[in-house]
Amino acid sequence: MEKDYKTKLQETKKLILDATRGKNKGRIPLISNDRTWKVFHAGYNLREGLYDYEKMEEAVYKFHEDFQYDAYVDLGNRNKLPIMDCFGSSGYQLDEAGELLNFLPLPMTDPPAKILKELAEKGTKRYAFENLIPTYYGIQTKEELAPVMKKAAAEFLNYSQKKGRIVTTMREKYGVPTMNRGGTFYPIELLLNSGVLGMREMGIAMRRNADALADCLEALSETWKKECIAYLDRYVETEDDHAIFPYAIGNLTHTIMSPKQFARFVHPYQMWLANELKKRGLTAYLNIEGSMAHLTEFYQELPDGVFCTLIEQDDPVQFRKWCPNLTLMGGYPTSYLSNKTPEQCVDKAKELMDALAGDGRWIYSEDKLLSYRKDVRAENLRAVTTYIREHGAE
Amino acid sequence: MLSYEEDLQYILDSFDFMPEEEEKRQAVLEAILAMIWVS
């Protein structure tokens, strides 16, 4: 019995890694880009799914049993909202009916120049402790912080235990590997993702405080590079038998950058990490949000066979032409899954398969995170995933 | 005013449900700080 799940897991890993390296001669792999639609599919609303670990767990297993993807970008990660709620705000806003989840930006009120200078001096841990906690949550003293942090730590352990159970069950019952063991962000992504600089403030900083921003990124990158090297060396030494990739790498800031800004603030860090991965014979999952069409020259420089690349708004056929060095994950229009008939959805799958699968470097996935009730009709998703699974080797 | 250097141990000492696990206490605290950075 044990051998069965291990064999299936290793076969799946090999399939996805072969596709990433441009060596896949087998069928088209399927990776789900679902985040929270599975909660609705299991009969719950977001409030129930995100605040009840057992309901999320049930949703993860039902989603897999019904659609049989090879791997999943999410196995209940959004359940960490209760941890951040201990501070008084999760950073998200959930509507009354439990149907909509919005990001709740908590931008810093200091001018960008002051933020960048302090962050460069303090580093991320100290800055979060001394600046973000007081500003975001109004906690000013250690006596106020201790009970809040204690509650958050207990919730974190609870989350980790429940998340661990999902990962173990997916592995040992279903033979499904986890997508990535860890994750990382290029230094500039931390600023935007945390809301330390919002979209507007980041835009201003890139124009008016460009040198301070570059200095801050360079200072942050010292620790970031050390942590990446330690992590990747450990990953190689302790061969992971259930994660496909060492890293998921989130990319969002490029959506508000010119090529010149990208060349200065992102590309050097992107190339550095790509080369560290390549040196060790490793691959990674690169999540490119929005569009990268204006930055193709930089993505073309990434080493061949290292990245499994999820795209959102770009045309997948164009992407294959722009970046033959990157394995494409995604491109299936979610608008079909929500609005068309099963037959129309399958026709679209055939069309994409004909256009993209020839060189073995296409992994089926959706062009946006499946998040809300109306993002998908279950019969459409079933028709598409069944078709790709059954016909993806022809 | 919070000070990472001066107040860290006070916060870690409050994690009394994780006795005798200083490294784990620190790792959990750092994981929570990382969640503040990227939710």
Descriptive labels:
heterodimer, A: 394 residues, alpha/beta, 17 helices, 10 strands, B: 39 residues, mainly alpha, 67% helix
Overview of this protein structure:
The complex is a heterodimer of chains A (394) and B (39). With 394 residues, chain A is of the alpha/beta class. In chain A, 55% of the residues lie in helices and 11% in strands. In chain A, the strands form three sheets. A six-stranded parallel beta sheet of chain A has the order 5-6-7-8-9-10. In chain A, helix 13 links the parallel strand 7 and strand 8. Chain A is globular, with a radius of gyration of 21 Å. The two termini of chain A are 30 Å apart. Chain B is mainly α and 39 residues long. Chain B contains two helices and no strands. The longest helix of chain B has 16 residues. Chain B starts with a helix and ends with a helix. Chains A and B meet through helix 6 and helix 7 of A and helix 1 and helix 2 of B.
Explain briefly what this protein structure is.
The complex is a heterodimer of chains A (394) and B (39). In chain A, 55% of the residues lie in helices and 11% in strands.
Helix content of chain B: 55-70%
Biggest sheet record of chain A = 6 strands, parallel
Radius of gyration of chain A: 21 Å
Determine the fraction of residues in helical runs of chain A and give it as a percent range. Answer: 55-70%
3D shape of chain B: flat
* Helix/sheet category of chain A: alpha/beta
Alpha-carbon Rg of chain B, integer: 11 Å
Could you give a short account of the major beta sheet of chain B? none
Tally of DSSP helical segments of chain A: 17
Mean pLDDT score of chain A, rounded?
93
β-sheet strand percentage of chain A: 5-15%
- Provide the β-strand percentage band of chain B: under 5%
H/E element string of chain B? HH
User: H/E series of chain A, N to C?
Assistant: HEHHHEHEEHHEHHHEHHEHEHEHHEH
Uncertain residue segments of chain A? none
Tell me the distance between the termini of chain B: 24 Å
What oligomerization state is this entry in? heterodimer
